[in-house]
Amino acid sequence: MASLVSRVPRLLQAVGRTLAVQATRSYADAAGPVGMSFTFGSPAAAFYNAATNVRQVDVPTFSGDIGILPSHVPTLAVLKPGKLTVYEDDATVNQFVVSSGSVTVNEDSSVQILAEEACRLEDIDPQLARSGLEKAQQQLSAAGTDAERTEAQVALEFHEQVVKALE
Amino acid sequence: MHPCCGDGLFHVPEIEALLAHASWVRDEHRSAAMLSRTALFVPTCTQVRGMATLKEIRNRLKSVKNVQKITQSMKMVSAAKYARAERELKPSRPYGTGAAAFYDKVDIEQDREKPRHLLVTIGSDRGLCGAMNSNINKLLKNYVKDNADKEIKFVTLGDKARQALYKTHSEYFMMTYSNFGRQPATFSDAAEVAEAVINSGYEFDVGEIYFNEFKSVVSYNLRPLPLHSLESVSEADSLAVYDSLDAEVIRSYQEYQLASVLYACMKETNCSEHSARMTAMDSATKNAGMIPGVNAIKSLQSVQVMENQSTRNHCSIVLYFSVIIQLNNAFEL
């Protein structure tokens, strides 16, 4: 699009400019990313603090899994247990497992993801995760009260997602 | 300054006579002596401005040394706790700013004229940590005074606020949490407080969190953070730019953000508390070590040695006297 604009004669440059503006609006990644300011942390660790080298983030939320690019439409969401993937500019991909928390995408393209618990996927011991899943299943079948059942369900869902993320 | 009998030290009749008529003998002591003269018990000596004996000064020095030992060990304990609190503060800072960022950007205005106010203060259980608790107490008192026509409720964390204000301001207290600050705060502590505030049923229009923000080992800052109710958030105009929101999402989001903000504030407070106590104990220890009396007592001993060796002459008595005065000034006896 940019090369096309440069070929437009001088008289039409005004129109060309509007075209270029429109192009920026419609192809956020092609027209040079605005750059998102990405914050991701849990109470125990801050993984990203207003980082600008992030291209895309895939987040599991209760409103569905969303992929956040720079200039994403502002939104709020509630984190769901699952795998969170961060794609950095230099093609490194970092994978995390999160339990619950909040996702905020603001108008100025700043993104805040606050997880109650989060850790890197490679730090998880698959065997422990699987035994945790079994334990959660037992807990659910043994649950007597409603509160216990809900607690066991949360644990079960979390462990299921961890095991799924590891596959 | 307390009156005590001049015993043992001044056996030189000239000096005793001098003291009895000295113009700096305080009037109340004179009148006390006059009164007691008419009483049943006749005092064995006239009361003069308290001059400490060598023994008293030694005792005083010993107690200062003991206090120094205590402050020294309190400083060590605080230093260890501070190191941990500071380490834990690092990840919680972005967490707190991240949680507060949304409210900054949405820019929800609080109308202070509305009738129902909620103040959440985060202090500590123990004192000796500078002015952080008294700052909070002062603020709460003034807030009540300045907003006399409003309904105000306090949620206080840490015993100090309750101890200071419960007698006079009991009707304002909604919830108090003790046992805060001894152990490092955890996210579940914050979640518990957030849940209690939400479930309290108090529908506040204006909310504020007050905590001491950690700046450096020697400084902290009392800082307010707005606390928004679910209504004020969901009624905010600028919320319209946010996509795909429903009431359930906003509610869960709001609850979680409140816990996150509280968590960050708790961590800041923990860090300020321990650093302030460390600094206070450090200077107390230094002060105890810097008593001018330590040197004075040495010269006093040398004077005594001199006295033992030679006959008491006028010169040594003057020296003795000046050292005693020095010591008295040092200890404000």
From TrEMBL, chain A:
Pfam families found in the cross-reference section: ATP-synt_DE_N, ATPD_C_metazoa
What is the documented function of this protein?
Answer: Subunit delta, of the mitochondrial membrane ATP synthase complex (F(1)F(0) ATP synthase or Complex V) that produces ATP from ADP in the presence of a proton gradient across the membrane which is generated by electron transport complexes of the respiratory chain. ATP synthase complex consist of a soluble F(1) head domain - the catalytic core - and a membrane F(1) domain - the membrane proton channel. These two domains are linked by a central stalk rotating inside the F(1) region and a stationary peripheral stalk.
Residues annotated as signal peptide: none
GO annotation, cellular component aspect: mitochondrial inner membrane; proton-transporting ATP synthase complex
Q: Is this entry keyworded Acetylation?
A: yes
* Subcellular location as annotated: Mitochondrion inner membrane
Its subunit composition reads:
Component of the ATP synthase complex composed at least of ATP5F1A/subunit alpha, ATP5F1B/subunit beta, ATP5MC1/subunit c (homooctomer), MT-ATP6/subunit a, MT-ATP8/subunit 8, ATP5ME/subunit e, ATP5MF/subunit f, ATP5MG/subunit g, ATP5MK/subunit k, ATP5MJ/subunit j, ATP5F1C/subunit gamma, ATP5F1D/subunit delta, ATP5F1E/subunit epsilon, ATP5PF/subunit F6, ATP5PB/subunit b, ATP5PD/subunit d, ATP5PO/subunit OSCP.
Family that this chain belongs to = Belongs to the ATPase epsilon chain family.
Q: What is this protein called?
A: ATP synthase F(1) complex subunit delta, mitochondrial
Q: What is its main location?
A: mitochondrion
Which molecular-function annotations from GO does this UniProt entry contain? proton-transporting ATP synthase activity, rotational mechanism
Q: Which organism is it from?
A: Branchiostoma lanceolatum
The keyword Transmembrane appears for this protein: no
Domain ATP synthase F1 complex delta/epsilon subunit N-terminal residues, every copy: 38-118
What are the protein's UniProt keywords? Acetylation, ATP synthesis, CF(1), Hydrogen ion transport, Ion transport, Membrane, Mitochondrion, Mitochondrion inner membrane, Transit peptide, Transport
Q: Which Gene3D superfamilies match?
A: ATP synthase delta/epsilon subunit, C-terminal domain, F0F1 ATP synthase delta/epsilon subunit, N-terminal
Q: Where is the F1F0-ATP synthase delta subunit C-terminal domain?
A: 129-165
From TrEMBL, chain B:
Q: What is the annotated localization of this protein?
A: Mitochondrion inner membrane
Q: Which Pfam families match?
A: ATP-synt
MF terms from GO for this chain are:
proton-transporting ATP synthase activity, rotational mechanism
Q: What Gene3D superfamilies does this protein's entry cite?
A: 3.40.1380.10, ATP synthase, gamma subunit, helix hairpin domain (1.10.287.80)
Q: Which UniProt keywords apply?
A: ATP synthesis, CF(1), Hydrogen ion transport, Ion transport, Membrane, Mitochondrion, Mitochondrion inner membrane, Transport
What domain of life? Eukaryota
Q: Does the keyword Zinc apply?
A: no
The record's section on CDD domains has: F1-ATPase_gamma
Q: Give the way it sits in the membrane.
A: Peripheral membrane protein
Could you give one GO CC term from the UniProt record? Answer: proton-transporting ATP synthase complex
What InterPro entries does its record include? ATP_synth_F1_ATPase_gsu, ATP_synth_F1_gsu
In terms of NCBIfam families, this protein maps to: ATPsyn_F1gamma (TIGR01146)
Protein family according to the UniProt entry? Belongs to the ATPase gamma chain family.
What binding partners and quaternary form does the record give? F-type ATPases have 2 components, CF(1) - the catalytic core - and CF(0) - the membrane proton channel. CF(1) and CF(0) have multiple subunits.
Q: Identify this protein by name.
A: ATP synthase subunit gamma
Q: What is the organism of origin for this protein? A: Branchiostoma lanceolatum
